[in-house]
Design a protein that fits this description.
Blueprint (H helix, E strand, L loop, with lengths): L2 H5 L4 E5 L2 E8 L8 E4 L10 H9 L4 E4 L18 H15 L4 E6 L1 H12 L4 E7 L11 H9 L4 H4 L5 H7 L2 H8 L30 H7 L12 H14 L2 H7 L2 H7 L12 E6 L20 E6 L6 H4 L1 H15 L3
Parallel strand pairs: 3-4, 3-5, 5-6, 6-7, 7-8
Antiparallel strand pairs: 1-2, 2-4
């Protein structure tokens, strides 16, 4: 049995929106409003293992899919198959498969971007929205890739990801090293290392572009065990999965930043009449709490909460705190 199968509920599959989607389900199907957990990069439905267990113990219906390009779900070849129309469409298709009219969507990292798009693109399918680390980000006036390239240079990781095959090869060369590099706690004693356990604050003027994952991964000593987040079994679940799939599917999400921006010009700019919760992580430098400032101008019904001493991988770093916030909010806003 794989490390993944040993630590997750039985996997289920649904043919929807042009993909075979793998998903995990716990709790009483058909009772109450379900919550759908959406993972980020480089992650899996497995990233929500602690939340699935907590929902099951609380008698809450919960679903966590491997989203397209990841894990046991299909990996289409076309880059355009990973735009937000497809990614949100997959979640709608999953609700249709489960016979669900509306769900609460909870997203972390890239999953948070998808989750915040749901009430703009499919408001009739949203009962509630939870952003974990990822805030609602209004559409900007410029192509985001051009803006990031101008501000941070070619080595900034999202710009670097645009080059076909390059980041894919670097991250896939040693999957064990890549996952150990990413999945770290913030450094102790308030040091600059935060978020993914990286010091990504060095400006380009000092010879290193901000968030230059390629250079940082190459320079990182794999024998460094400081601040490792995962147990050996947890690490094995990620490593086995990405050794089987590589990272291209997930990277293709990033390759649609410009396309998503171009195609979002006519979308609504506010989220109203849907309860929303924003959970921030104190030490996440990738998605800092400061990025959530001003969300009240775009979200009509918003609560905020801060998880102390957490870096970027908050649902895995601080599962009890995250579980208490999610379930407490659901009990208030969606009582059974």
């Amino acid at each position: 049995m794989s490390a993944l199968a040993r630590q997750m509920p039985p996997v289920q599959h649904a043919n929807l929106n042009g993909v075979d989607m793998a998903y995990y389900e716990v709790g009483p199907r058909g009772q109450g409003v379900p919550i759908v957990f959406c993972h980020g990069f480089p992650e899996l439905a497995f990233s929500w293992r602690h939340q699935l267990r907590a929902c099951e113990a609380a008698g809450r219906w919960a679903i966590a899919p491997d989203q397209r390009g990841y894990g046991l779900t299909s990996r289409p070849e076309a880059v355009t198959d990973y735009d937000l129309e497809h990614l949100t469409g997959d979640l709608v298709g999953l609700l249709d498969h489960l016979g669900v009219e509306k769900a609460i969507f909870c997203g972390h990292d890239w999953g948070g971007i998808v989750t915040w798009q749901m009430p703009l693109m499919h408001p009739d399918r949203c009962a509630g929205i939870i952003g974990l680390n990822t805030p609602f980000m209004p559409r900007g006036p410029f192509d985001p890739i051009a803006a990031m390239r101008m501000a941070f240079g070619e080595d900034m990781y999202i710009v670097w990801f645009q080059k076909p095959g390059v980041a894919d090869a670097v991250l896939g060369a040693d999957v064990d090293k890549t996952m150990r590099f990413f999945m770290r706690r913030p450094a102790a004693l308030g040091e600059a290392e935060a978020g993914a356990g990286l010091d990504m604050s060095t400006p380009a003027a000092e010879g290193q572009s901000t968030f230059a994952f390629g250079d940082l991964l190459d320079a990182w000593d794999k024998s460094d065990t400081a601040n490792q987040l995962l147990t050996p079994d947890e690490l094995a679940a990620f490593v086995e999965s990405f050794e089987a799939t590589d990272f291209t599917g997930g990277i293709n999400w990033y390759r649609n930043f410009t396309r998503n921006w171009e195609r979002s010009a006519d979308l609504p700019t506010r989220v109203d009449n849907i309860p929303c919760l924003m959970i921030m992580a104190e030490k996440d430098v990738v998605l800092s709490p400061a990025m959530a400032e001003g969300m009240e101008a775009y979200i009509g019904d918003l609560e905020k909460a801060l998880v102390k001493d957490s870096g970027h991988w908050t649902q895995q770093e601080k599962p009890k705190e995250v579980n208490d916030l999610i379930l407490g909010w659901m009990d208030r806003r969606f009582p059974r």
